């Protein structure tokens, strides 16, 4: 057995931890670039305390143009570090900006799938990440996801050097997240924990994090959805998201996220909702394929473990786990693919793009084009 493991140099997890951001920033740089969401009221106090040399506000899904504009602004302001506060979009942009401040080549030199995927030649400037939702795990991942509008796909700029120097997780920042966003981001975390757990690249370290995260998410996601002010449930979901980010950064993902990239690039649908909608159907397709083609695969045993963790029933089968997730999606009102604008006419193109997505490499079994199309048909 052999593996490597990378994560943030420092992780701070506690209610109220966000109050320490100005002090932490001063330890890493003198001219911070603040990257945050589109609502200035949410970070007005922090902005006043930091007095950043540049501020970037990200509304909606970040694309390559927005990332380049943000990097140029930060370079022109001579920023020497980045503080990224917000959901996955803000933190992904912050990671990319931190990388592009010191790496000034064409962004397509570094992008996966649509670009050359070249490694960064220079170390990114220091980075602090602060999530305000519980789902993406972007605070501790090694990539920034960007929309390439010309090709209608989401791709990553990826390098382990892009992992944050400091990740500050303050569950109190998630108390105001509305139910629909709680549901979508929570399903993203659940999907990431499951996909990393059954991944071909899973390790004992990532599996331990996934098991703990799954226990917390299974218990607390429905509670946080029903009562957003329940701090213990918010803490559990913040931990589940954190563990999912660490796990996926080291073990990879699978078909759910393989599909999520092209669907998110072509349709105005929240990433987490796409993942939640697809998750039970990908589980069923993988379990069916494993039973027929690789019945001795450790991933099949992992799916059985997932079912027991989710349901609390020691007799639960892998298929029961997929049913449990399907029922949770109904409870959380996760929309179908058709509600997001996907029709059968899109299936061939989406399946083809999913096949070439980097996330697909971790899927526990190779799925045929017919099986991939079947997932879309089931999720419609």
From TrEMBL:
GO molecular-function terms, A-Z: alcohol dehydrogenase (NAD+) activity; metal ion binding
Entry keyword set: NAD, Oxidoreductase
Coiled-coil stretches: none
Required co-factors: Fe cation
Chain ranges of the Alcohol dehydrogenase iron-type/glycerol dehydrogenase GldA domain: 9-171
InterPro entries: ADH_Fe/GldA, ADH_Fe_C, ADH_Fe_CS, Alcohol_dehydrogenase_Fe
Entry keyword annotation includes Oxidoreductase: yes
Domain Fe-containing alcohol dehydrogenase-like C-terminal residues, every copy: 182-379
Sequence similarity: Belongs to the iron-containing alcohol dehydrogenase family.
Protein name per the record: Iron-containing alcohol dehydrogenase
Organism: Pseudodesulfovibrio cashew
């Amino acid at each position: 057995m052999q593996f490597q493991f990378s994560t943030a140099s420092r992780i701070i997890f506690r209610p109220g931890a966000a109050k320490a951001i100005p002090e932490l920033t001063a330890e890493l740089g003198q001219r911070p670039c603040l990257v945050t969401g589109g609502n200035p009221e949410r970070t007005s106090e922090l902005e006043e305390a930091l007095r950043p040399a540049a501020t970037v506000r990200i509304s909606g899904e970040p694309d390559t143009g927005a990332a380049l504009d943000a990097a140029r602004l930060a370079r022109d302001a001579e920023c020497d570090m980045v503080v990224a506060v917000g959901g996955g979009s803000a933190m992904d942009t912050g990671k990319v900006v931190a990388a592009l401040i010191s790496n000034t080549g064409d962004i397509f030199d570094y992008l996966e799938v649509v670009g050359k995927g070249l490694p960064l030649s220079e170390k990114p400037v220091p980075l602090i990440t602060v999530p305000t939702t519980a789902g993406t795990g972007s605070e501790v991942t090694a990539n920034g996801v960007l929309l390439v509008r010309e090709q209608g796909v989401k791709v990553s700029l990826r390098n382990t050097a892009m992992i944050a120097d400091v990740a500050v997780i303050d569950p109190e920042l998630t108390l105001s997240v509305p139910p629909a966003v709680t549901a979508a981001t929570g399903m993203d975390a659940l999907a990431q924990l499951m996909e990393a757990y059954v991944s071909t690249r899973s390790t004992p370290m990532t599996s331990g994090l996934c098991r703990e995260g799954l226990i917390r998410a299974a218990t607390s996601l429905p509670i946080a959805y029903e009562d957003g002010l329940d701090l213990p449930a918010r803490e559990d979901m913040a931990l589940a998201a954190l563990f999912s980010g660490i796990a996926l950064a080291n073990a990879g993902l699978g078909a759910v996220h393989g599909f999520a990239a092209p669907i998110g690039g072509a349709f105005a649908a929240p990433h987490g909702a796409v993942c939640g909608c697809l998750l039970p159907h990908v589980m069923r397709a993988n379990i069916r394929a494993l039973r027929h083609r690789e019945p001795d695969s450790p991933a099949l045993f992992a799916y059985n473990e997932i079912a027991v963790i989710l349901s609390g029933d020691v007799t639960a089968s892998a298929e029961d786990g997929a049913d449990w997730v399907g029922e949770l999606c109904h409870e959380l009102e996760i929309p179908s693919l058709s509600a997001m604008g996907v029709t059968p006419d899109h299936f061939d193109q989406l399946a083809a793009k999913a096949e070439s997505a980097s996330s697909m490499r971790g899927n526990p079994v190779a799925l045929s084009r017919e099986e991939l199309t079947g997932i879309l048909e089931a999720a419609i």
